[in-house]
Design a protein that fits this description.
Helix content: 40-55%
Oligomer: single chain
Shape: globular
CATH superfamily: Aldolase class I
CATH architecture: Alpha-Beta Barrel
Order of helices and strands: HEHEHHEHEHEHHEHEHEHH
Largest sheet: 8 strands, parallel, barrel
Number of strands: 8
Strand content: 5-15%
Strand order of the largest sheet: 1-2-3-4-5-6-7-8
Structural class: alpha/beta
Distance between the termini: 24 Å
CATH class: Alpha Beta
Number of domains: 1
Radius of gyration: 18 Å
């Protein structure tokens, strides 16, 4: 293991946590108006309970320059308060050539994320700039938690591409591309059966698992399907269920801590 993957394994072991908190600020639901103040309070309340934070860039970009400044402050605060956690840039980029290189420069040199989410539709060329540095890396969108995922991800392969479905092929390609050991895949909690199969096929690859909580994925089923032989190797992500556990300014941070602690305990009970 190298880079962010080793960092994940270390923090998961030392914190005894597989929880990833999605920092997706929605001004309509935030208990305080200032995005950085809101995020920093969440981080202060949960920093010892998690293995990763995952800001979704769309929420910050939607707020214009003020949102980008808030993201900068949030990342700086995470680096100060919880420098050992994995910081995921949830950007889902997907392009080639100089554009992909520019995206990678932005995510790593400007924002200082450890790893990012990527769409693989354009092939290895869209991934290479993100995995050149073994200390950084990418998490490839593979089997997502949304109901519409089957429209593409369940397409059956024909011809020289091999057998199985498109998401299985995506996982196989990711494994082939993973020569530096710094790639993972996104596998939704709403598909524990498929997750079990993917884990058997890819025993050492990190999984980012969205879809618990508000999206209806079962924590126990996802944990048992996703963890590796060491009982780690996953980041089980919750956003709304934690950061909006309360929308009251007087207790939203405390409520977020309780929700993160509950999720951590449920995961740990499931993995035994």
């Amino acid at each position: 293991m190298t880079g962010w993957v080793e960092k994940l394994d270390t923090v998961a072991r030392t914190r005894n946590s597989l929880v990833c908190v999605g920092l997706d600020p929605d001004p309509r639901r935030m208990a305080v108006a200032d995005v950085a103040e809101f995020n920093n309070a969440i981080v202060d309340a949960t920093g010892d309970l998690v293995c990763a934070y995952k800001p979704q860039l769309a929420f910050y970009e939607a707020l214009g320059l003020d949102g980008l400044r808030a993201l900068e402050k949030t990342i700086s605060h995470i680096k100060d308060v919880a420098p050992d956690v994995v910081l995921i840039g949830d950007c889902k980029r997907g392009d080639i050539g100089s554009t992909a290189t520019a995206y990678a420069k932005a995510m790593f040199d400007v924002w200082d994320f450890d790893t990012v989410t990527l769409h693989p539709y354009l092939g290895l060329e869209s991934v290479e700039p993100f995995i050149e540095d073994p200390d950084r890396g990418a998490i490839i969108v593979c089997r997502t938690s949304n109901p519409g995922a089957a429209e593409l991800q369940d397409l059956k392969l024909a011809g020289d591409s091999g057998e199985g479905k498109l998401y299985e092929h995506t996982a196989r390609l990711t494994a082939e591309w993973n020569t530096r050991g710094n790639l993972g895949i996104v596998v939704g909690a709403t598909y524990p059966g498929e997750m079990t199969e993917l884990r058997a096929q890819h025993p050492d690859m990190p999984f980012l698992i969205p879809g618990v909580g508000a999206q209806g994925g079962d924590v126990e089923a996802a944990t048992q399907a996703g963890v590796n032989s060491d009982g780690r190797g996953v980041m089980i992500s919750s956003s709304r269920g934690i950061i909006y556990a309360s929308e009251d300014a007087s207790d939203f941070a405390d409520a977020a801590r309780r929700a993160a602690s509950t999720l951590r305990d449920e995961i740990n009970e499931a993995r035994g």
